[in-house]
Amino acid sequence: MELHQKLAQKLAERAAQGNLRRLHTTAGLIDFCSNDYLGLARSSQLRTLIHKEEENYNDLPLGATGSRLLSGNHRLFEELERFIARFHRAEAALLFNSGYTANVGLLSALPQRGDTVFYDEASHASMKDGLRLSFAKSYSFRHNSVEDLRHKLKRASGQIFVLVESVYSMDGDLAPLPELAQLCKEQGAALIVDEAHAVGLYGDQGEGLVAALGLEEDVFARVMTYGKAMGCHGAAVVGPQVLRDFLVNYSRAFIYTTGLPTHALVALKCAYSLLPQLSAARQKVKQLAQSLSARLNQLHGVRCTPGNSVICSVFLPEPGQLKPLAAALQNEGFDVRPVMAPTVPQGTERLRVIVHAFNTEEEIEGLVQAIAKGT
Prior knowledge:
By secondary structure, the protein is an alpha/beta fold.
């Protein structure tokens, strides 16, 4: 069988399972889908700030021109990384080109042969992919189960690493960070926290959930991703200076890639400058999410994850109902998407509804009514 036939067969198999992925555009719909939690990606204020701030860096090239270890490093990288470290109350920060790249670059380099890594089973695919490139042994533990982690730590050898997300991307639930930090301290384990869905939303200035809980000294490394509440692109690993130096020397995802373009760095600098001003937006979006979760849980045959984050997963009795319901919601003007296996485990398919600071109570009520009508 020729290669193109093999590829077509694999696609046909996925289509037969009802899980074939396709690219779509949904302009004009009410956004309950994107990760633009605070509306910064569409902010005219941020756009104006970026245009003005770019004038201060006209001496820099548009693109980085190479990897940062060759021609790609310049003063804005250094300025921004120092600012990011101060903002998140860490010694140092290192920018990566995306959250995926940051996780792969960190986890493929840091755990060494003979070390042991334990990761929450609900951890993002980028964390698992990074571990596949590592020479360390790795084991999953039950989602948010400190006791299961405690039990599995007995099989550890070498340096121990524990990997979690502060806010999980599918159910929107929060990791038990204080309990995890205490266990890691008892066991001499290094705790690594992906803050992709927390940065911008938690903390007095949006520093993330780790800082909001005062756990900066108890977490070895944090990954801050900028394509969500920050409305930009890229990511940073924050932690001790020795970790930054180590990654500059050993992280292949950092060493062998061209640095971020100047515009992306300026956008990040400006987005960070706005975060402290957005406390009202942070409060509003959480209130809207709580309202949505409470109303959906009152519907017959509908179960929604608790509204303690802006991510609400909506479960129906039969997974086969999800795609028709999503299509019906889009016809009603609401951009809501189903999340199917293999993105989530078989049997946990759901509608993933994202609430934003720019959504309104009227839009929440309209979405609830549309879901009730469609079920």
